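2.7 Reproducibility. Because tokenized structures are sensitive to small changes in the input, we list the exact sequence used for Pex N-terminal domain-containing protein, including any N-terminal residues retained from the expression construct. No trimming or masking was applied before prediction.
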Amino acid sequence: MAEAGAHLTSTAVNEQPSIFEVLAQESLMEAVRPALRHAVKVLAESNPSCFGFLWKRFDELYMLLDVLLQNHFLSNCSASFSENFYGLKRVSDRQGLTAHLGLCRSSRLRSLLLLFLVPYLRAKLEVTLAQQREEEDFSIRLAQTRNQRFFRAAVAAYPYVSSAWQAWNFCQQLLFVFGVSRTHSPLLWLANVRLARLNTQDLRDMEQNISNTQKPADGRYVIHFGFSGLCVAGVDFSHSEQYKLITIYEYNDKVSEQF
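Resulting structure tokens (single pass, no recycling of outputs):
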């Protein structure tokens, strides 16, 4: 009985990621958007006639790419792009500690919605509020309509709302560090999922899915193969179930031997 309890405790500790892992994967996605925005801005300034529309519709185009990317990784790897890059997966609380790869439909949809919609709305809101502040600073105060009063109230309330959200996020991270909470982010709590490390069974499931994939006539096979190779890139498992970092190219070489 004691051995069984010790085994369950060891499994829970091994599956639980550290705070450094979860913060690192969040930093990865936070760095992608500004880098891509700067690249698009440089292209638009160098050739406005060809790339100007990319800069004007950057938020919408980025959201579309984000939806496609996150949906692929949630469907095939049960994690977002950045979570899978660091060898993590999303697990529904209903599945327990022994859950392998795979999210239920409701958890996957909630995760996808929160992954792409919250950053998009935040970016659009910050741009709109910045423009509203500039208009208030350089315009003459006249009789205001209902919409203008609403925007003024939103501008005044946004710093408090943003501070409250950051405080909630910080408290959630503290609870995660001390083991009180199983999620480090309010978004994961709203999606009713938690993060766990990939295990050997998950790796076998991924390789089995890749080996069962038939090569179609068009070029979609190349895209799927590239994404699948990226899904488990970054982690490898020895016989003692300890993690070892590997490169994407090393994993792709392993997978290519099966074809």
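The mean pLDDT is 75.
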